[in-house]
Amino acid sequence: SSLSHACNIADLRRIARRRLPRPIFDYIDGGADDEVSLDRNRSAFDGHALVPDALVDVSAIRTATTLFGQPVGSPLMLSPTGLTRMFHGGAERAVARAAARHGLAYALSTMGTTRLEDLAAGFAGPRIFQIYIFKDRGLTAEFVARCKAAGFHGLALTVDTVVAGNRERDRRNGLSIPPRLTWRSMLSFAMHPRWSLSTLLSSPFDFPNVSHRVDALAGGPMSLFDYIGGQFDRSIVWKDVEWLAGQWGGPLSIKGLMTPGDAKRAIASGATSVTVSNHGGRQLDGTPAPVDRIAAIRDALGPGPEIVCDGGIRRGSDIVKALALGATACSIGRPYLYGLAAGGEAGVDRALTLLVEEFERCLALLGVNDIAALEPRHVRPCGVK
Ligand code: FNR
Fold this sequence. Notes:
About 45% of the residues lie in helices and about 15% in strands. The protein has helices spanning about 1-5, 10-20, 20-30, 35-45, 90-100, 115-120, 135-150, 170-175, 185-190, 195-200, 210-215, 220-230, 240-250, 260-270, 295-300, 315-325, 335-365; strands spanning about 50, 65, 70, 75-80, 105-110, 125-130, 155-160, 250-255, 275, 305-310, 330, 380. About 50% of the residues are buried. Bound molecules: ligand FNR. Ligand FNR binds near residues 28, 79, 255, 310 and 332. Belongs to the FMN-dependent alpha-hydroxy acid dehydrogenase family.
């Protein structure tokens, strides 16, 4: 199949682009405004050169670690993404099954298309729930209780989404609220009848984690998405993180931080982990690349707290670079979504296999047989001899 011919994540992206109607592909692929952060997230990795050690015994390589208190096979996790059922009918369950096969942690989005209880029932691996603080604190507290009951291991509080980013590809494609599909978009849907039929039949606009609380208030499906987004509390501050940490009492990452100061505040407020992220370049455009913030944030936090580098990872060597700079793990969004769109569970599996194999090959060639032995000296800014 074309999946087994996919040599890398870029190949999976090309297959996904063929299989999806253009507006749906662009929803995954695009970023905010001029997509400066989107491009920088990726290219920043090229700015770090790898410096190998020779003649190290790499006959066995240790990649296992812990994340959110759970053992994982590799320092790699799957980021939360909303609307997953739009990309393939297998939706979150397909993603979770592939993650479990590789021993990786997976984060379910509040805006996901699978009930958190249903995901937990079919996924034994380390499961994280990505939460928002809603204006209605009762809704957030209810999520915490449901996550405890369903055996989630960690929470990730996303803090870079106080308002929706300006995704101009979506606006041009008419993927707006309300939808204003252009002739071009409609043609693209018509040219992908298999996707259009199966997806529309699977009601991708159901948000089963929240809909029981908002159904009565909202109008059509897209306005439901809009309505839920409107319920994110834009007034939240660090005190609210303390509140959430107190409610949850378990591993908690603050997702969407960029500075050493905020990272320190997160830990002081009760978080156990920080996810350095600009939401994959989908929110504030112009931010630095997460990988370029890791060293300073590790410096500020010291060796203890977990640091997850999220955004722009497309190669196993990217994971090596982020870890050498001080990250505990990397997290991926688009790479597994390209795989999902390209071939469902098998496509996600292919994406994860490629990244894990590249990661291990890179470690061997770098002369590192244990991820704990990765150090800042293994990377140099390009141009520095
Ligand atoms: C996202 N992301 C995201 N983040 C989050 O906290 N909640 C969400 O519901 C979503 N939804 C979402 C949808 C889609 C289609 C994408 C591509 C991304 C951001 C995601 O968790 C992660 O931060 C980025 O995807 C990381 O960048 P890369 O790996 O895509 O470059």
